[in-house]
Sequence to fold (689 residues):
Amino acid sequence: MRKILNGNQMVLGTCYYPEHWPEHLWEEDLRRMLACGIKVIRIAEFAWSKIEPTEGEFTYTFFDKFLELAEKVGMQVIFCTPTATPPAWLTEKYPEVLNANIDGVLYRHGARRHYNYNSPIYREKTRIIVEKSASHYASHPAVIGWQIDNEINCEKDVFYSESDSAAFRVFLREKYETLEKLNRAWGTNFWNQTYTDWEEIHVPRTTYSDSTNPHEVLDYTRFISASARGYVKLQSDIVRKYIKPGDFITTNGLFGNLDNHKMREESLDFMTYDSYPNFAYTKEDYERFSRTMQDRMWSKNLMEVRSTSPVFGIMEQQSGANGWNTRMAAPTPKPGQMTLWTMQSVAHGADFISFFRWRTCTMGTEIYWHGILDYSGRDNRRLQEVKDIYKKFQSIQQIAGSRYMAQVAVLKDYDNIWDAQLDVWHQDVEKVSQQSLFIAAQKSHTPMDYVYMDDEKTSTSLSDYTVVFYPHPTILSPDRVRMLEEYVAQGGTLVLGCRSGYKDMTGQCVMDRLPGLLQNLTAVDIPEYTRTCPGDEPVLIRWEDDLLKAEVFTDQLAAQGGREKTSRILGMYENCYFTGTPALISNSYGEGRVYYYGSVFTEQAAETFLRKLGVKKPYKELLELPEGCELAVREKDGKQYFFVLNYKKEPVQIHVRRRMKNLYDGIDLQGWMQMEAYGTLVLEYNRNM
Ligand code: GLA
Fold:
């Protein structure tokens, strides 16, 4: 059985760097960790040179010694492959392993993640170090699992080395076979971009106004994702040969230009995530997040993690201030915030929480990225809070393996995410809708999931959801449309926003009536559309008693002729030159219903849909909470666990309407109660009682 994420236990861990500390501290550190309930550590993700100090010379004594000690004191270890930081001897001798900027200037030794995934030499060196490490350490009794590399695609998620161009050509040849097909897919007739030889193709290079052919960039992004996944698979295939039964393989974090879902399916037993909600209070990000929901925005990231692994781990949970010497400046978590952020992770499905890091580093770039302990290592307030978290964990052991429950989902897919990165029109609608749907659901205590679409998925992945939003599926394939049709036909409710269906998989616009492939399902026609301009009068949409303000974009709809039996116009534009034009049309299709809304989902529109479709506040009979609290629900064996999280710096009043058990102290409660500043609660509710 797995030692963590086994459905039976909630476990605490921390990140430890034996190579950063004098050996005489190791034992004391491990014993102190154990004394406060930390049972797992992660080690070695940046320590290549401790195993291969010079090319081809392997030595295992350093980590052998450490693992022996770990075993002696009873500490379990997640061992890492060290490929995020290639050694100086390697990059100096083989500069081709380095990543480059868009002009081909190499990123040199001295930071991290400076390699590229496609260099044949780096792949070979990776194969060797992973084989050596795994074959030596995987059988060690203290080792319980492996982390591949560290934060795949973090720091840089674009690659411009020579090896990347060479690999990009191979990727494209496999995909298109002929240059004719590639030229068609990339629309190279435009601006005379036609390729006549594969060697003329490169990863994107500096172009005027950064306006490289968008269809090419979309394929390039798919290529980066495939490269990263291939690189992780190369490693996990090796590690897999050596791990003990029950041991696991994971990696940490979710980053851009990477299909994290496919990576998980191909190579990992589960995903772990690095959760730093304090970014909401850093110098650079304060403005961005304070306008929204500050640290509560991290729940959006946790929803993403959950969509890859319903029960997951946190490899790095914030335990101190963040900061590099070069960037980022955030305060120390206030009393209670470490617990709040830990329980935020747990509420969304984390059964393993490992704090970053045990001791704060005294050297290098991350001297301000604080761990539990400060430089001196003395006992402090945050260590005390870890002890308290451990106590809480002991009281909630029974929730291990329970699943987050939601009846509303937002559909996503990588083609549209990547298209939105390079198409500012698409980006503008997507940004507003994604953020607003999340915030509206959060404020109204409506649990929500993300579900990722791909061509292999079937409608069963949606069948648990009463209502599914697919805000702006600009790019669509016939397979995805078939899946949506199936979901609706079987009784689901699908809500689509403006700009749906106007591109094909290459990112080119379709020469069809809009919404393209969705015409049949929606019974909608879109004869006209426009962006809204900052100086224009606000566009208003009337939907019964609700008057919605349309932002960013409007599709002017028409009901398709001949579909009157099933389709209904529900909303109209109230002003501008399209007064009286339909803005919302619903169509019943099989057992279900689809709504086409001609604009973006602002917070107001999102709230209106949740309310009118009857999925807002599903637990209002049980709990009444202020907007500033998050509600999450995990379920197991007929029992529901309600997580209430108070992100506010002041106490709040909540109303527990039905009798529930407070798991922290085992006492039943009902009625009004006060939650302290940054307070958390886990309430058990037995529906059958
Ligand atoms: C990441 C990394 C860690 C550390 C922290 C703080 O999440 O995985 O190695 O660098 O950030 O920067």
About this structure: The longest helix spans residues 214-242.
